[in-house]
Write a structure and sequence with these properties.
Blueprint: H1 2-21, H2 24-44, H3 48-57, H4 59-64, H5 79-104
Helix pairs in contact: 1-2, 1-5, 2-3
């Protein structure tokens, strides 16, 4: 169930970004960049506290926490809280997309 929610929220981010930029290739690039940027930056940062914080706000890392079933105390964010972080990213993308769609089409 959690994996399905994760994928639906990723699709919503994609929809929001696509509505914002109105070009499929650009939207795909932005969404993939957003999903993979935080894990790459996390590996570059040396401070463990900053690494954990970046993992907590990362849409992909936080969202994938919903798939964890063991060693939950080792996760940077809890499974449902991580899904909440991803839902916040999705809501923000949909809100920006909706606002720009209404602004351009009126």
């Amino acid at each position: 169930m959690g994996s399905v929610l994760y994928l639906v929220l990723i699709a919503m981010i994609g929809l929001g970004v696509a509505t914002t930029v109105r070009e499929a290739a650009t939207a795909i690039g932005i969404v993939l960049g957003l999903l993979y940027l935080f894990p790459v930056v996390t590996q570059v940062v040396n401070d463990p506290e900053w690494q954990r914080h970046l993992q907590q706000i990362s849409p992909m890392t936080a969202g994938l926490a919903i798939q964890a079933t063991v060693h939950l105390h080792e996760l940077p964010v809890g499974p449902w809280a991580g899904l909440g972080v991803l839902a916040t990213w999705a809501a923000a993308a949909l809100l920006v997309g909706s606002l720009l769609l209404h602004r351009r089409d009126t």
